[in-house]
Amino acid sequence: MRNLGISHSVPEKLARLILEWAAAKGQDAKNQKPVSIRAPFTHEEIAELIGASRETVTRLLSDFKRKGMISFNDATLTILDRDALEKLLSR
After folding, report:
1. pTM of the model
2. pLDDT of residue 9
3. HSE of 59 in the Cβ direction (CA atoms, 13 Å)?
4. How far is CA 20 from CA 5, 13, 45, 86, 88, in A?
5. Which of 72, 3, 2 shows the shortest CA–CA distance to 86?
6. Are 58 and 46 in contact, with CB atoms under 8 Å apart?
7. Is the dihedral of CA 34, 72, 5, 9 positive or negative?
8. Per residue in 27-46, is it b (16+ CB within 10 Å) or e — as a string?
9. What is the rounded CA–CA span in Å between residue 76 and residue 4?
10. Which of 11, 21, 49, 50 has the smallest set of CB atoms within 10 Å of its CB?
11. Domain housing 32
């Protein structure tokens, strides 16, 4: 989570957080298959972590879902397109 502070945009911060959850679960960048993560926080808590509003987090998660990057069901989030999430990260 220490990398969240150096992220520039809110979408980047959210993508970085999701990828860090996957890494904590042992899913590194080379593993391209979908990975399911039990999201440990509510939208409100995620918003606090990345310095955004709950509404923005909800909108971004819906946007990521619409673009096919993730899917979610209740508290389970599945990364479908890791490359697309990684493209949101600053170079």
Report:
1. 0.84
2. 92
3. 7
4. 13, 10, 16, 11, 14
5. 3
6. no
7. positive
8. beeeeeeebebebeeebeeb
9. 21
10. 49
11. 2-87
Q: Who's near 48: CB < 8 A, 6+ residues apart?
A: none
Q: Pick from 28, 54, 59: which is nearest to 43 by CA?
A: 54
- SS3 call for 70: strand
pLDDT per 10-residue tile (average), the chain, 91 residues: 63 94 74 80 94 97 97 91 91 49
**Residues 6 or more apart in contact with residue 9 via CB below 8 angstroms:** 88
How far is it, in rounded angstroms, from Cα 50 to Cα 48? 6
The pLDDT score that the predictor gives to residue 67 is 97
For residue 71, what is the domain's CATH number? Answer: 1.10.10.10
> Amino acid letter at 11?
P
- Note the pLDDT of residue 76: 92
